[in-house]
Amino acid sequence: MDTSIKKGIKKDGLSSLHALLPGAKINHNKGTILVNIGTTKETLIFNIGGTRFETYRSTLYKIPRSPLANEEFLKRHFREEKGDYFFDRDPDVFKALLNYLRTGELHIPSYVCGPAAKTEFEFWGISDKRIESCCWTNYNSWNSTLEALNQLEHDRKESFGSELETQITSTLWGEWKSKAWKFLYIPDSSKPAKAFGWISLICVLVSIFSFLVETLPVFRQSRETYRERSIQNSSYLHKHTIVNASDLYNVSTQEWASKNESLGKEGTSKEPLSLLEFLTASSHYSFFIIDWICVSFFTLEYISRLIVVPNRFKYIRSMLGIIDLLALLPDYTELLIYAFDPNLGFSNSFVNVISAMRVLRVLRIFRLIRHVPGLWILIYTLKASLNDLILLSVFLLVGMLLFSSLIYFAEDRETFTSIPHGFWWALITMTTVGYGDMYPTTPWGYVIGSFTALSGLLMIGFSVPILVNNFIMYYKHVQFAIQQDAEKRAEAKREAAEKCHHTNTDHSKIVADRKSNNNDTVESVPLVVIVDDKT
After folding, report:
1. Are 40 and 57 spatial neighbours (Cβ–Cβ below 8 Å)?
2. Cα dist. 130→124, 143, 284 in Å?
3. Which of 82, 87, 198, 344 is the 20 to 30 Å CA partner of 247?
4. Which residues make Cβ contacts (< 8 Å) with residue 68, sequence separation at least 6?
5. Cβ-contact 136, 97 below 8 angstroms
6. pLDDT digits over 456-503, tens only?
């Protein structure tokens, strides 16, 4: 009988009094007691996965509650013809187990997978908490990696719809929804789905291109020209209005709205612009057409997903669902506000709101997540590494507070006016950017600046590799999972084709058998002769 227990604590049903037994060994450094009882020289032979082990019977009783100390358990695996106990288990882990029974220290090989070793320990009745600290880091990293990859796979299927597809019922409507879901979410499922995926990708790229190019100076001038022509052709400005339309639209959008608002207070009878004139007055006509073509496509796509998705609430609050909705929000908000009150189109508050909401159009870039898995992995890595990012932020805040305080008292107050003002210098120096707008000029300032830069390098060197390793691990796993999914779909198609071929073959055999049976059972029909009595 044996156990290893902490000082003064009961464990495995035994107490520290067992240290008084003959042969007991006390490890004062680890606070453990190893008790060896048994003088028999009888040996037992174990065959573990084809590897032969031999040990003393007394060695097995060092863990009283383990299966190896249970005679009934051993009898079930005893082979009389060979005189050994056979277990179809991992021999490497069993070797580590025998060494633990002999020495009281549990060490596992570094090449053994952690989850596999955990399964073996559970079978042999050994707690993984007994693993020595030198082996625990490697063992725990295996298990942590497995948990992280399982969570990644669950989130990936949930984000890209693979998990929701399994919730579709087997009814006729469910089968149609399943086909529509594959068409929308799995481009490799069919040629039409692949074509739709390319159309969606092109619309995303064109929308982003339009959003970027619209800000170029040459298109801004054209936009002002279209604004002026829209107003001149409308009934909003009358002949007696003293404001020149060209002067009105050579100013910023806020000034344009302000002047139009002032015109409304003069009491002149004016009519608001039409919807098309109003929208084209705020952007170049060509980009207006391109943008609304893309918005129409995104709207139809979003509605289609809402129709075929099994769990609408889960899709709406998912990351991709939120991105799809936010990408459509600016354009439809502009329409709704103008439809509610046309006069709002010429107020400063409306222009400020629309200008802020149009920034949300940049979120359309994240629609590429469906077509570029690496982008989703990058976002997921930042999400999964939230604790590491928080730790990095804490290091950064501590450094900013420390070095901005030092530089404030070491430098001229004209450059570093306050400690909070020095936060910017500390942040830029620690991240090794160095814009040059603030810099030290005194000897002590040089010393503080040097330590600031060195601390920033150490901070980046300690934290960034963690994010890089997580990204590489997630990226490799997702690539492997995508390849597996493609192979499963190809295998399913092959099985469906083979099944259809066998069905057609069986049907052909049945038809041929029926024809042969009909030919064998043909009866002779006597010739009927009709005789005319008159003749």
Report:
1. yes
2. 13, 16, 71
3. 344
4. 60, 74, 101, 124, 125
5. no
6. 999 888 888 888 888 898 888 888 887 887 787 778 778 877 777 666
The whole-number pLDDT of residue 415 equals 86
Amino acid identity for residue 202 in this structure: I
Parallel, antiparallel or unpaired: strands 32-34 and 25-27: antiparallel
Q: What is the pTM of this model?
A: 0.62
Please state the length of the chain: 535
Phi-psi region of 13 (alpha: psi -120 to 50; beta: other; left: phi over 0): left
DSSP code for 522? P
pLDDT for residue 406 is more than 80: yes
Distance CA 364, CA 373 (A): 16
In this structure, which amino acid lies at residue 30? K
What values do phi and psi take at 105, rounded to 5? -125, 130
Closest CA to 247 of 260, 266, 235, 264: 260
Give, for 25, the enclosing helix (H) or strand (E).
strand 25-27
Handedness of CA 264, 267, 271, 277 (dihedral sign): negative
Cα–Cα distance measured from residue 174 to residue 116, given in angstroms and rounded to the nearest whole number: 39
Q: Distances from the Cα of 13 to the Cαs of 65, 123, 489, in angstroms?
A: 9, 20, 54
The CA distance from 77 to 87, in Å, is 7
> What CA–CA distance (Å, rounded) separates 361 from 356?
10
Torsion sign, CA atoms 120, 126, 128, 133: negative
